[in-house]
Amino acid sequence: MTRIEKEKEIIGVMIRLYCRRKLRTEQMPQQYADLLAYARRRLDLCRFGEGKSSCRRCPVHCYAKEKRELMRRIMRWCGPRMILYHPLITLRHYLRR
After folding, report:
1. Helix ranges, the chain (H)
2. Which of 24, 29, 44, 67 has the fewest Cβ atoms nearer than 10 Å?
3. Are 83 and 27 in contact (CB under 8 A)?
4. Residue 13: C-alpha distances to residues 1, 7, 17, 18, 60 (Å)
5. Using CA atoms, how far apart are residues 67 and 30, in angstroms rounded to an integer?
6. Dist CA 49 CA 27 (whole Å)
7. pTM: predicted TM-score of the whole model, two decimal places
8. Residue range 77-91, pLDDT digits in tens
9. Contacts of 61 (CB under 8 A, 6+ apart)
């Protein structure tokens, strides 16, 4: 699995976790489904490809401002909880640093 594919998977996991636990919905609201599709599209078009850094450290911010803020809110909420819900993903993330 390539780095881009892994990031797509992790973003999907985080958005679904946010919707299920924070928003308390079983189905992903359309706004978040659109955000997931947008994030996947942006990863497909990333100019750095497999050599990319994390989006937070990237010199080029390719997300629109409102999408970037929504993604930041999701990641801020999910970050501390990922160790509980997805420990393997979290462990791989910290080992990759």
Report:
1. 3-17, 30-44, 65-78, 82-85, 87-96
2. 24
3. no
4. 16, 10, 6, 9, 24
5. 13
6. 31
7. 0.88
8. 999 999 999 999 889
9. 55, 68
